[in-house]
Every structure is written in C-alpha cells, then in structure tokens.
Design a protein that fits this description.
This protein is mainly α. It is 64% helix and 0% strand. It has one domain (4-64). It is elongated. The model has no long low-confidence stretch (mean pLDDT 79).
Amino acid sequence: MDIALPIITLVVGLIGGFLIGVWYLRRQMTAMQNDPEMLQKVAKQMGYNLNGKQMQRAQQMMKNGNMGGRAPAPANKAGKRKTK
C-alpha cells in the first residue's frame, strides 16, 4: 500500500492535469477566433506581423479547424487519396 497509493495518485494527477490543459487550450482557441486583437497578440509573440488579409485567413482556418495551414488533399472519385 505504501508504493501503490503514490503511483495511483501520480497517474490520476497526470490524467487530470492533461484533461484540464486540453479544456483550457480549447477555451483559449475559441476566444481567439472571436477576438482578432488576441490573435494578433499571439502572432506577434511568435514573431509574426499579420496584415488584414492574413488575419482573416488565420481566423478562417481556426474556424474550420484546419490548423496546419494547408487545405486537405482532394479525394479521387472512389473517395480515397491518390497514390504514386
């Protein structure tokens, strides 16, 4: 019992911390979608200076959930990606 309790506590703490972190990050991302000033602030902290067009594009990507910056690859007629 002296070994099991600290291990169980550690695992529960890690899982709880992860879930709270995910919840907080999602809340912040949602707030950034609605507040262009916050998005501009984050971009400046990362070393980017966004103009109006880039700001609209970034907000649109966040709303669509496309955080990679690239559009998804088009699918062929069968609904699968083309292979080389």
